[in-house]
TrEMBL record:
GO terms for molecular function: thiazole synthase activity. Residues 11-262 form the Thiazole synthase ThiG domain. The gene is thiG. GO terms for cellular component: chloroplast. This is Thiazole synthase.
Amino acid sequence: MTDLEKQPLTIDKITFPSRLMLGTGKYKNLHEAKNSIEISQASIITVAIRRIQNAKTFGKSNLIDGLDWRKLWLLPNTAGCETVEEAIRIASLGREIAKKLGQTDNNFIKLEVIPDPKYLLPDPIGTLKAAEYLIKKNFTVLPYISPDPILAKQLEEIGCATVMPLGSPIGSGQGLQNISNLEIIINNAKIPVVIDAGIGTASEAGKAMELGASAVLLNTAVAKSLKPQHMAEAMKFSVISGRMAYLAGRMEKRLRAQPSSPPVEGLLEK
């Protein structure tokens, strides 16, 4: 077994073989979405409960019927919720949907409280309040936050299963914009840190893993690429290689060059 296989992703005592999480929105069609998810070999798939709720037929527009939930883990999310109360209500619906899929022990919820419609930045106070309530109701809370080390630690201390700081705004494809704060969050955390939002291509997912992130969650980077299935596969390998590079340990940076091979005595004299 490799070091990668010896250290699988564990969230709330549940182990997952992949450290890549994928969203289900923004694809051209369900066929493309299903193929991309299968190729990625992601273990955790996040679905917006509000989108399911608004669908005329349960599951048809959200891949619920098209995916094998015996192999995948549903991560319901509260995307689109602007208030604490709304996020709590949608979280309860998410847990009900997970149980209907046969995941009776699935209490996971990706918590998003986003009152800002322009920049889609999460509300730190609302997120903290909603997380406190949901944890008391036995939810496994994975909160989506700005890269704020203090908030990340507060959420960990109240019992969140992970923290999910954004790399950059949702759907922006700007990559990792605040690496210093992300490193602080990762170094301070005793729970998994999942980089969520803003990743645009495979090298950025790899970079997030090289920093020491436990996983990455992305959607638009795959769904809006020219060839989503190809990008899904690229993301799969970049997450694996980034994790392996992190475990291997980066070489020390030096100001001066250093020869790869030592000089042979007497060679230069001749």
